[in-house]
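Study this fold:
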Amino acid sequence: VQEYFSSGKETPPTLGNRISAGLMTGGVAVFIGQPTEVVKVRLQAQSHLYGIKPRYTGTYNAYRIIATTESLSTLWKGTTPNLLRNVIINCTELVTYDLMKGALVNNQILADDVPCHLLSALVAGFCTTLLASPADVVKTRFINSLPGQYPSVPSCAMTMFTKEGPTAFFKGFVPSFLRLASWNVIMFVCFEQLKKELM
């Protein structure tokens, strides 16, 4: 997608090209994956403690119950904050990784090899977690909310801010960082190795 936005130019992709690529891929990913995101969040949140009967017995059961008892459109509940989250993640990952790698290689701190890719991916994972955490927390709260609990996504965010303060937007930061950092390391290191082999 980066190549598509910089087609016909011999120079490396600009910051604008990278951001555009992140916006496009993030938007497509959310539209396709939102129903699965809703089911995942609902399944993770249901309680099995103290004999409380879970709402869903499994993945397919959750799809069916959500679509039939609430509505088919409920499977796309929280699309706005998830879109915001994915756009932030995609743009931050791509831009931070490229900038960090460029800085390390151009300043001759590290060669363009696995240690450089690993460090760049870790930095990208940290920056991504920091910027995406508020949208991630709001998305999870909104998807898990009871029908009518929050009239809108901004109302959910404002309720969190007024009742719990700004730190509420960074709940679960460490597990989120571990997840995103490990994803970035696997994705970028494998990508760089594949690119080297194929090109």
In short: The mean pLDDT is 87. Helices lie at 2-5, 15-45, 59-70, 79-106, 114-144, 153-164, 173-198. The chain has two domains: 1-77, 79-198.
